[in-house]
Structure prediction request, 17 residues.
Amino acid sequence: MFKIQNFIHKCFNVLSF
Prediction:
């Protein structure tokens, strides 16, 4: 499991907002 992927997912969430 890559922690980076989790970070990217969070970034995408902010962009979607």
